[in-house]
Each structure stands twice: as C-alpha cells, then as structure tokens.
Amino acid sequence: MFKNALFTLAVLLLAGCTTVPITGRRQLSLVGDQEVIQMSFQAYNDLMKQSKLSSNATQTAMVKRVGQRIQGAVESFMRQQGASAQLEGYQWEFNLIQDDKQQNAFAMAGGKTAVYTGLLPITQNETGLAVVMGHEIAHAIAKHSNERISQQLAAEFGGATLGSLGGGASSQVLNTAYGIGAGVGLMKFGRTQESEADRLGLIFMSMAGYNPEAAIPFWERMAASSNGQSPPEFLSTHPSNETRIADIRKNMPEAKKYYKAR
C-alpha cells in the first residue's frame, strides 16, 4: 500500500507540471492560477489596509509609470508567445508604501505590486526602479507563488489540493507560502526562482524601454547598503552578490536584444 501511495503521488507530481516562459524550466503546479490570484488579491488588500501609502506625488507617479510600462511589455511578450491566456484574471495595481525602513518590493500573482519608500534611495532613479519592478513582476509571470504553494502541498499534504484541505490546513499553507505569519505578507522564494526572476526581469525592463545595464550598479548599491551586516529582507533568499552580478552579465546580451530606448 505504501508503494502504491508513492506511485500515485509520483504520477500526480509529474502530471502537475508547467513550463516557465522563456527559461523553459519545468515547475510543480498543483494549484490553479485563478485560485492563487484570488488568494493574492485578498492578501494584497489586507496588506494595503495595514499600510500607509506615500503622499509623495512625484515618487508615486514614478512607481505607477514604471509598473505600467513593464505591464505593457509583459502583455506584449505574452501576446507574441501566444500565451495571453496566462494573464487571465490579472488586475494590475502599483503602489508606493510609506516605510523608509523597508528596502523591499513585491509583485503578487495577478499583478498586484508594491514598492516601499526605503528602497528608493537605492534605486536612485526610474531605471533603477525598473530593475526592481521588472524582477518582482517576473516572479508573478513565472508563477513562482503557484510553485511555492505546490511544493508545500506536496511536502506536507501528499499533493492534496487546497480545496480538499480543511479551512485550518488551507490557511496554514497560504500563510506559510506568503509569509503572513511573519507579519509582512510577502512571498519567500528560493534561489533558483530568484535567479530566474533576474533573467526574466532584465528582459521585461528592456522591452519596457529601460536600459538593462542599470541592473549591475543597482545590485552593487543594494549589496553595499547592508554595510557588512545581515542583508536586507529583499536579499535574504537571493543568490550571493557575486553570483548575481556574474549571472546578470551573462544574461545581458539576451536582454539587450529586447531593448529599444524611449
């Protein structure tokens, strides 16, 4: 019986796989896109209620402008790939949260995106901001939140669906996946997902008309901001600075094929 259970789980995991756009990496997907998107909307709305939005009109407008340009690039790319259906249910939103201590940004499944004011001194300008927002939106497009939740379902619940779990267990999965228990409400990704988001983010910012070369000095500034202490939350699960910058240099020729200055 144990062997049969393992076989059934193996078949389920093999069947529940999708492919990440551009990179072609196979990823586990045991939860529906629309289910994750709706969960993301709820988590985002809850976080917005708990947060104070920036009153700086210039900075807020910049965040929205960069977000909308990258949104346009993503929609164009997915249309070219015949994959527009993967954006079904998206309700894009871009906000600047007032918190100078948070050097952070995020994009949830469904396009709900936010930047914290503490990150702006490091981004320095609109192109630097595009590095961050391209990276975070890439997480959503690559369905990393779906993958994270699926991995937890497979590890803790034998591949069960969220709908089949009781309310308490389902909430546990969501809270762990989104880091809600930590009081932040942001997805924690692994290094493979972070590196993938770096690559995709370079392409999306390039398509949006932002020079991808800006990614290297941005990540150098981000590394320097730690002053030898523990890395900021934004870097907690990311590759080492040296690895990241080396990978960005390697991926730069690919990204620049998509770049047209505006």
TrEMBL record:
InterPro entries: Mito/Outer_Membr_Metalloprot (IPR051156), Peptidase_M48 (IPR001915)
Keyword Transport tagged: no
GO biological-process terms attached to the record: proteolysis involved in protein catabolic process
Entries under CDD domains matching the protein: M48C_Oma1_like
Names of required cofactors: Zn(2+)
A GO CC term assigned to this protein in UniProt: membrane
Gene Ontology terms for molecular function: metal ion binding; metalloendopeptidase activity
Keywords carried by this UniProt record: Hydrolase, Metal-binding, Metalloprotease, Protease, Zinc
Classification via Pfam families: Peptidase_M48 (PF01435)
Cofactor binding comment, as recorded: Binds 1 zinc ion per subunit.
Stretches assigned to the Peptidase M48 domain: 72-250
UniProt family annotation: Belongs to the peptidase M48 family.
Protein's UniProt name: M48 family metallopeptidase
Organism from which the protein derives: Rufibacter hautae
Phylogenetic placement of the source organism: Bacteria, Pseudomonadati, Bacteroidota, Cytophagia, Cytophagales
